[in-house]
Amino acid sequence: MARKVLITDCADAQGLITEITGVCFKHQLNIIKNSEFVDNAQGRFFMRTELEGVFDDSSILADLNEILPHSSHVKLVSLSKKRIVIMVTKEAHCLGDILMKAYYAGLDVEIAAIVGNHEILKPLAVKFDIPFHFICHQDMTRLEHEKKMIEVIESYQPEYVVLAKFMRILTPEFVARYPNRIINIHHSFLPAFIGASPYRQAWERGVKIIGATAHFVSNCLDEGPIIKQDVIPVDHSFSAEDLAKNGRDVEKSVLSKALQLVLNEDVIVYGNKTVVF
């Protein structure tokens, strides 16, 4: 039997859990796991239901849309392995962590390809037998460079694009192609220290913790919906270089955890926020 996840996002109302699970029962689907959340401030209901059985998706969704409030968002998603393309520049720690975890089944993901605007990480891709596409940005406009990257990415048809320390700002045109499908790791505990040189900014401010933030990319720099964050303690003895060195460990951990949440359909985006089950 197949296993899928039912994602429900709708206006809050009485009896929603009973109504939704009743449709699941009608279609003889076994509920493996169920989680729900109500945003009382927005009057919004969210539910993630992991199901097992024989699925007639169109019939199930039609029945759900009949009983749910107007303007509801509901989808059935397979838990099969998903395909990603990773974009990189020069830093290896986040890419290496994802490659290792995927190779040893710590991440259930198919890495279709790696796209880089420098060649320095190509040997790492070769070691894991992953296609590496070097697309140099020099002597090109940003749009020309992105057009070449999009051609490569589209040839693999990934569910998600992962920015593993890809150090170029993406245009609105690029972002619009993959709404809530581009996952970025920012080397700071957002919303603090956005933009360039966050560890230098943090050192100059004398912070006592540093962190990293994985988020979906939006058209506002480093302000997309947050998926996962973490921090570690630091003190006055740390230089800016020490902060960056220790920060890299947090970055790779946060990115891989965020990716796992997304792959497992544990993240619902609404507005510029997320519900993470």
Automatic annotation (TrEMBL):
PROSITE patterns, per the entry: ACT
InterPro entries listed in its UniProt record: ACT-like_dom_sf (IPR045865), ACT_dom (IPR002912), Formyl-FH4-Hydrolase_C (IPR041729), Formyl_transf_N (IPR002376), Formyl_transf_N_sf (IPR036477), PurU (IPR004810), PurU_ACT (IPR044074)
Lineage top rank: taxon: Bacteria
Lineage: Bacteria, Pseudomonadati, Pseudomonadota, Gammaproteobacteria, Alteromonadales
First-level EC class: hydrolase
ACT domain span: 5-82
Active site: 222
Pathway assignment: Purine metabolism; IMP biosynthesis via de novo pathway; formate from 10-formyl-5,6,7,8-tetrahydrofolate: step 1/1
Name recorded for this polypeptide: Formyltetrahydrofolate deformylase
Record's function text: Catalyzes the hydrolysis of 10-formyltetrahydrofolate (formyl-FH4) to formate and tetrahydrofolate (FH4).
Keyword Hydrolase recorded: yes
GO-annotated molecular function: formyltetrahydrofolate deformylase activity
Annotated keywords: Hydrolase, One-carbon metabolism, Purine biosynthesis
The keyword Transferase is annotated on this UniProt entry: no
Gene Ontology BP annotations: 'de novo' IMP biosynthetic process; one-carbon metabolic process
Catalytic activity of the protein: (6R)-10-formyltetrahydrofolate + H2O = (6S)-5,6,7,8-tetrahydrofolate + formate + H(+)
E.C. number(s) listed in UniProt: 3.5.1.10
